[in-house]
Amino acid sequence: MDLHQGERIIFEGHPSWRATLAFYIKAMLIAAAVVVILGLATDVSVVLWAVVGLALVVFVGFVKRMTTVYTITNQRLRIKRGFVARNVQQTRIDRVQNVNTDQSVIERILQVGTVDFDTAGTDDSEFKFAGVSQPEQVVAAVERAQADQPRELADTGP
Asked: Phi, psi (5° rounding) for residue 25?
């Protein structure tokens, strides 16, 4: 990430591996079904297909998680997704009006959640840090970033 002059990183992270458990469970079930079909349709061992399927699921999950980067600096919020195709969302930290967290019961147990940012002047309702570990620490990082912003003088009259 290219930092602007005077900009410093307060938080940088990826979705937690615990947040990708649902992906792994669904992908493993699909892979198991494919392994059974391929095992019945080919002469190749079911065990070999299972190992290939498991490796593929783990690899895809890892790449998906590691190619999503959440960054909070003292000047902006940034979400970068993708490896080959890339999607970057960012907004200035002074435009953040509300920071909300969302955790299901399972997510509370796993200590992961989604941090949703409401920003001024945009209709971008999908500015979220999804699946972050310890979402309350992300909220605290945003508060630190906002506190680090220079305050404009309201009325400097005599």
From this structure: -65, -50
